[in-house]
Amino acid sequence: MTPIDLRSDTVTRPTAAMREAMARAEVGDDVYGEDPTVNALQERLAGELGFEAGLFAPSGTQANLLGLLSHCQRGDEYLVGMDAHTYKYEGGGAAVFGSIQPQPVLHAADGTLPLDVVAQVIKPRDPHFARTRLLCLENTWHGRALPHAYLREARALCDRHGLALHLDGARLYNAAVADGVAPREIACHFDSVSVCLSKGLGAPVGSVLLGTRALIDEARRWRKVAGGGMRQAGILAAACLHALDHHVARLADDHRRAAELAAGLRGLPGIDVVAQHTNMVFLDIPAPRLAALKQHLDAAAVRVSIGYTPRVRLVTHLDVDDAGIARAIAAFRSFAVE
Ligand SMILES: *Cc1c(COP(=O)(O)O)cnc(C)c1O
């Protein structure tokens, strides 16, 4: 039985058509700026999202790091959500490589960072304090698309205080598809945006940082320093271009399947469906049942990451079809009645 893998949308494998596009890619040495396919990807995303320039990076972690290193100097500070990927899941890279101090802010229930709290933690210009330089948001956040009115207010706050605004847009395309808007209608509020092509869009590798030409020139320097300068990377960029051509509109299928999965699990004894947004479903399972659930799902070839906390996240993506959703629901049902 082929496993249904709901651990993350990073597990997608390149389709046959994507592999063909990769095989056909024209390439050159991208450290010399001579890979035509990388250049095409960077220019296409810059145009699509409304920025002057883009920079291909091997991971979203690196794209965010390059953004932070380019906006901030040693001793500067960035404001970030307590559960944000850049703060919590990127090894503290901004502090490690940039001596950039994070100022974490507690998320509201809808994933936003309350702007009155953000305003309070902006430091006055005074030698006692780190220089607050940047606010970093994440969209989608736990699958939720941030409200457009909130983005506008965050932009206005940054303008009032002279801060730059960066978006970790690993799943920006999910947010745009869910909101029914062009991605640039979200990106337009930000000074820089990182997007992942390797999540629900289904490319094997690749993120792009977008910003002004000056910011991207600085980021290119930092990418080399970080060891992210790749050579014939057009093979990877071709997969990303293929993803943009063929895998954006279909994100709506992932969102529909996540909603169907949530509906199928709602009301089952011992399974509390906490939330469903875009391609993510969150469940709470009583802690003493977690190990048994894992065993049960493994036996049914349904892969779910179950950690030490009762909160379980299920993620739909390119490699999960309707039959897979039905099988996952059946596996949870048979567990619930066990
Ligand atoms: C996946 C992800 C990233 C980047 O992760 P990489 O694995 O380094 O590509 C950044 N932010 C969010 C919110 C993510 O989900």
From TrEMBL:
Its EC number is 4.1.2.48. GO terms for molecular function: lyase activity. The keyword Lyase applies. Gene3D superfamilies: Aspartate Aminotransferase, domain 1, Type I PLP-dependent aspartate aminotransferase-like (Major domain). Its cofactor is pyridoxal 5'-phosphate. InterPro entries: ArAA_b-elim_lyase/Thr_aldolase (IPR001597), Low_specificity_L-TA-like (IPR023603), PyrdxlP-dep_Trfase (IPR015424), PyrdxlP-dep_Trfase_major (IPR015421), PyrdxlP-dep_Trfase_small (IPR015422). Keywords: Lyase, Pyridoxal phosphate. Residues 5-285 form the Aromatic amino acid beta-eliminating lyase/threonine aldolase domain. It comes from the Bacteria. It is an enzyme of class 4 (lyase). Homotetramer. Belongs to the threonine aldolase family. This is Low-specificity L-threonine aldolase. It comes from Lysobacter yangpyeongensis. The lineage of its organism: Bacteria, Pseudomonadati, Pseudomonadota, Gammaproteobacteria, Lysobacterales.
